[in-house]
Amino acid sequence: MQDNRYSVSFVMPMFNERENIGRAIGVVHSIAARLCSDYEIIVVDDASKDGSADLVQEIASGDGRVRLFRLENNTNFGGALAEGFRRATRDVILYMDSDMPVAIEDIEASLPLISGCDVVNGYSKIKKGSTLKRKVISFTYNLMIQALFGLNVRDINSGYKIIRRDIIKDARFVSRSPFVDVELFIHAKRKGGTIKQFPLIFRLRTGGESTIARLPVIWATFRDMMKVRFSLLK
């Protein structure tokens, strides 16, 4: 059922997602047509090398609701998400990874929650299998976030969030790594924003490859963590 309360910018950062992005845009269209009458789909290409951006450009040339923005240099995700936030023009921003990890039913159930808060954060309601190394990294990362920023958000880097644009429209994001997710919550907290957690099951990707757990990305995330911390001390 269409709900005219919601004016939504669907934001999808993208890096080498040629196998997924066309289907993802199609699914977003089908969801948006039921949930709202006013929407846009923003894809920010993080300097892909597999022709992803050309594919989106082809779709956008025949579809005025799809907007593509290309970054010249890869930013390890953070710059692409920040650019998507900056380019969004609707009242609500719904961000998801471009491999479409969220079921349609979960999007339909979670969007109305934004009426009573400023940020809806999707978190995994089942424990994901992981190596000891990744568990140690995750534990240490979350401990540092709590100690340095006073944030205690489940699955803080999850690939699904809904945000009121007013809470971040004036924010200047320092991060150019996945730490941008944490920075989002820092900006919301400083403005007195409220957060709701939404449990869901993230689906495994069917194509492409995640780069989040690679050592250069982990290092970039730690570096941005320190940059943001020192910027808050000024």
Topology record:
Elements lengths: L6 E8 L6 H15 L2 E8 L6 H10 L4 E5 L7 H10 L4 E5 L7 H7 L8 E6 L7 H18 L10 E5 L15 H11 L4 E6 L14 H19 L1
Parallel strand pairs: 1-2, 1-4, 2-3, 5-7
Antiparallel strand pairs: 4-6, 5-6
Structural descriptors:
seven-stranded mixed beta sheet; about 230 residues; about 40% helix; alpha/beta; about 20% strand; Spore Coat Polysaccharide Biosynthesis Protein SpsA, Chain A
Q: What's this, in brief?
A:
By secondary structure, this protein is an alpha/beta fold. The chain is built from seven helices and seven strands.
Give your account of this protein's structure:
With about 230 residues, this protein is of the alpha/beta class. The protein has one domain: Alpha-Beta Complex (Spore Coat Polysaccharide Biosynthesis Protein SpsA, Chain A). Helices cover about 40% and strands about 20% of the residues. It has a 7-stranded mixed sheet, with helices on both faces. It is globular and about 45 Å long. The termini are far apart. The relative contact order is 0.17. The mean pLDDT is about 90.
